[in-house]
Design goal:
Nucleotidyltransferase, domain 5, alpha/beta, 5-stranded mixed beta sheet, 20% strand, 9 helices
Amino acid sequence: MRVGIDLGGTKIEGIALDPAGGVAARLRRPTPEGYARTVSGIAELVEEIGATIAPRGGRVASVGVGIPGAISPATGLVKNANATALIGHPLDRDLTAALGRPVRVANDANCFTVSEAADGAGRGANTVFGVILGTGVGGGVVVAGRVLTGANAIAGEWGHNPLPRPADDERPGPRCYCGRLGCVEAFLSGPGLSRDHRQATGRSETPEAIAAAAEAGDREADASLARYEDRLARALASVINLLDPDVIVLGGGLSKIARLYRAIPLLWVPHVFSDRIDTVLKPPVHGDSSGVRGAAWLWSPEELPA
């Protein structure tokens, strides 16, 4: 069975997928502090999953791990990770040594996109762009069933491009954790929406609370979401102009805001360089489980280790 691990800031989730893609086991543990304990924690979780499926005749055939960062092709070390304890370490090699088997490590947004392209909202589509709208803003690209990593292992990182066509009051834009001003992530992450709402209203609220208030008729909350939708539409239009995907799948906490799927395809029309737009915007089929499922899908059947 394929085993997938999703390494988050607060939890490590692991699943085992049977050959049909069904979940044979699922376990969660708190994320340990520090790099060494994270490596041992992931290894222990894989061993626990193996022990769980063994009585039913299952065995661990492959291990894939999704992380909030990437392995640098130049150094072989983790880079661009929100989980800063990982940065500068050879995580894939250390996990391979700890488990005594090959391990594949990939960006968590790539894993999300692989999952939704394989048997989720993008199933059957040739080109799928997966979006993470949560604490940060990430993205992944799958073409013909294969995830694109890129020469620099940053394919799909649209969150660190500038917000397209900024209005005067959007310049220079809020500071992003990467150090730049006006990144898509700084505007469209959950904290970005909350900050914009606070600046406009003086109220500190979560994205969930803002969406609920807008649904209940709160004009200020509705205006905050309208600004968010306009910015998201511009940002996704630039993705369509570049990749021309068949499907865009939204993931992360903000993907649960239902009105996005009605508003965005109308708002991106003026910004897409085409007479007709056939790209479809969809919510994820597998929800919060897409990342860990995608980690398991990093190995195709013909690649599974013996």
